Amino acid sequence: MMKGSKGWTSMRNMRLSSVFGYLLMLLILGGCANPTVPVSERDTLSVREEVELLGGSVIRIVQQGDTLYSVAFDAGIDFRQLAQWNRIGEPYIISVGQRIRLTKPDNFVARATGPNSSSGGGLNASSRAGGTSGSTVSSRSVSSSTRASSISAGATPTSWLWPVTGKVIGTYNPSVGRKGIDIAGAAGSTIKAAASGRVVYSGTGLRGYGEMLILKHSEEFLSAYAHNRRILVKEGEQVQQGQKIAELGNSGTDKYMLHFEIRRLGQPVDPSQYLPRPG
Length: 279
Description:
With about 280 residues, the chain is α+β, with helices and mostly antiparallel strands. It has two domains: about 50-150, Roll (Membrane-bound Lytic Murein Transglycosylase D, Chain A); about 165-275, Glucose Permease (Domain IIA) (Distorted Sandwich). It is built from four helices and 14 strands. Strand 13 (about 255-265) and strand 14 (about 265-270) form a beta hairpin. The protein is globular.
C-alpha cells in the first residue's frame, strides 16, 4: 500500500505541475496581449526616433504639433526640397498620420510646389480623410499656414542681432553634434528675433530643444531659439528684428541658456559668422 500511495502521490504532483504550468502560460500570453502597464505617448510610435523604409524612401509619420518646417529642421533638410519630394504645395499643410518622405524618391522630377500644387502629398492618401488619422495637425498649424500665402517670403537678412545678452558657453561644432551656440543668461531674460521673419514653429516636439521657436526669414534662412521658459509669439505671426519673442529658460536642459541656430538651405551654419562681434 505504501508503495502504491507513493506512486499515486507522484502522479498527482505531476498532473498539478502540468496544470499550473498551463495556467502560467495563459497568464503570460494574456499579459502580452493586454498589458496592464500604462503606455505613455512617448512609448508609442515616435517618429522622432523611428523611421521606416517604404519603397526605398525613409519616411516619417506626422504627429500632433508637427509642421513641415519642424520636420525639415529635425531632418536637416531644406523645407522646399522636402515639400517637392512629397508634392506638398504652399501653404505647406500637413496632417496627423501622414507619411512624409525624408529622402529623394526614385525617378524624382522636380516641379513647382506653389499654391496650385497638391497639398495632400506624402505617402498617405488617408491624409485627406477625417478623424484622428489625416486630421489637420493643429488649428494653429492651419491658421499659420493659411496666413503664409499672404505674407511675403521676406528678403535674405543683411544683418543679424544677438538674440540674448549673455556669455557664450557652447560654440558651433557639428562634428560633435553642436549645430548652434549656447548663450547663458538669467532666467526670464529677453530673447529677441535675430532678424525679421515669420514664426513657422512653436512647440516642444523636437527632442533636446525644449520649448522652441523657429523663424523663417527668407527662402534661404531659418533661425531657431530653444530651451525657452515662455514663448511670446504664435505660429504665423510676423516679427521684426529685435522684437521680444520669448523668455530665457531651461526647458529640456539643466542650465538657463538659449540654444541658437541658423539654418541655410536646411543645413546648420555657424551663427558666429553672421552675428556681429561682441563688444
